[in-house]
Sequence to fold (320 residues):
Amino acid sequence: MTAPTLYLIAALLGLLASWYLLPLRWAALLSSLARRMAGLKSKQCQVGEVHWQYLEGGRGPTLVLLHGMAAEADHWLAIAARLRSDYRLLIPDLPGFGGSTPPQELDFRIQAQSQRLEAWLDQLGVHACLLAGNSMGAWIAADFSARHPDRVRALWLQDAFGLHSARQSAIMRDFVAGQDNPFLIRNMTDYRRLVKQMFHRAPPLPYPLQRAGFVNAARLAPELERMQAELLEQSTPVETLLSGLQLPTLIEWGEEDRATDPDGVRVLSELLPNCQCVTHARVGHLPMLEAPGPCLRAWQSFATEHKLMADVTASHDSAT
Fold:
């Protein structure tokens, strides 16, 4: 075997080893590549004492996408890549998560998170938008819309968290009974179990991204009990926030959601006079990750029916 061949083999073995020995560096590289392929740029800004990291890209009406608990902006990438041609997308790491201000410094009541969202949109000069959220992000979107219906043209809620009158999911029943807290992540086994619970069939995820997801979730552990208490015990229920709201609203739910029971569709449809409901078979708590194609088609149909492009193009700033 020649020396160049040996060098090549050694280099390949070193690269393979780094995949497992330096997973966070690989995760940063893979995430950067995925954002680039989606046509999004990673940006940062300071709003008072809160640091925001967010993704931006596309041209057209402004569509803001909010993630849920222990998640991050990148969870929207699969669908964002397909939305970018029609919308200016703003996708934050909500403060407390991802690359934004760490959780130790923050109030996690929904009203506080909604106020931070307002300040961030003000900073970016966004006076009105289309607003979407998954899970906790849907709860924040509901609060913001209730407080500022003049600033929201339409709502897009996926598997909303914070409904008190909907049937409790199995995960929530165990949590309320003090038997289990799936968001308390202490090791990779805990993290993989959480991922399994969030999906009907989890998409394949490279090891470096699994490791990065674990690190991001595990850093919440010291603050988790406080965060969840503020979120669950001191926040206004979604029913109160949205009751009678006239905004056009698309409600999506995974039929196999084990975190927020699909009974939420019934509750929201009875509250909102101008809503459209779509459920996805064989999909769990994160439809934008597990079924981006069906989610996109549901949104496009909804946006066309409500003429959202025509309604908001004139009043929204496009990305420069």
Observations:
- The chain is about 45% helix and 15% strand.
- The longest helix spans residues 3-21.
- Confidence is low (pLDDT under 50) at residues 311-320.
- The chain has one domain: 24-313.
